[in-house]
Write a structure and sequence with these properties.
five-stranded antiparallel beta sheet, alpha+beta, 95 residues, 1 helix
């Protein structure tokens, strides 16, 4: 997952799951433009997470297990967020 100036791929969404008494979470990797998630690439079970994330700079490393399908709840929420962001951008540019 690499992003430069808000363009690239990153994980969005976090749905907690418990498997055999262990806590994990599901996240979806998106291609982003200006930090807006546009195209879902894959969903993962995140087993371990190391590092930190500061607003525009992240130093995170993950141990991931790829899921066979995209995790739909992340798609609905993030597409709505992207649509609203683009709407505000259009309104701003037309004013």
């Amino acid at each position: 997952m690499d992003m430069i100036n808000g363009c690239g791929t990153t994980l969005y969404g976090r749905t907690e799951v418990e498997i055999d008494g262990e806590q994990y979470y599901i996240a979806t990797e998106f291609f982003c433009l200006l930090w807006v998630p546009l195209i879902p690439l894959a969903s993962y079970l995140v087993v371990k997470e190391k590092g930190f994330d500061v607003i525009v700079w992240a130093n995170k490393r993950y141990e991931l297990i790829e899921l066979q399908r995209l995790y739909r709840p992340h798609l609905h929420f993030l597409w709505w967020a992207a649509a609203i962001t683009l709407l505000f951008l259009v309104i701003y540019l037309n004013s």
